[in-house]
Design brief:
122 residues; mainly alpha; Rna Polymerase Sigma Factor, Chain: A; 77% helix
Length: 122
């Protein structure tokens, strides 16, 4: 980017940083996550700054990036669900976590050499 565009972006970012962090905080409920989301949004806006300026409303453009980045946070953290035909209580009954299992595990670990135990313990 040229010097003029860099300066325009810098001024925009300094003027809108607090508002974007507040928006992100409203979406995330966490100050650290909010700053991360705002920082990522400004990085993306910087990379596309000429297009952001052509949009006519850079503030709205960056707000949309903040909202999308927050949405992406959840998409990345999504936990796959596994459907079963039994409720969780019944499903867990089939798993055995008895004393015998622990004793067998301890015996197996003790049969390992010190270096192998060190790797397993990590």
């Amino acid at each position: 980017m040229n010097q003029t565009l860099d300066e325009e972006f810098r001024e925009f970012m300094h003027g809108r940083w607090a508002a974007m962090v507040r928006l992100a905080y409203g979406l995330t409920g966490d100050r650290g996550h909010a700053e991360d989301v705002a920082q990522t949004a400004f990085a993306k806006a910087y990379a596309a700054w000429p297009r952001v300026m052509r949009s006519g409303d850079p503030d709205a453009y960056v707000r949309r990036i903040v909202v999308n980045e927050n949405h992406n946070r959840f998409r990345k953290r999504r936990i796959a669900e596994r459907l079963t035909d039994r409720p969780p209580e019944e499903h867990n009954e089939h798993k055995s976590h008895g004393v015998e299992d622990r004793e067998a595990l301890i015996a197996a670990l003790q049969s390992l050499g010190p270096r192998q135990r060190a790797v397993v313990g990590r």
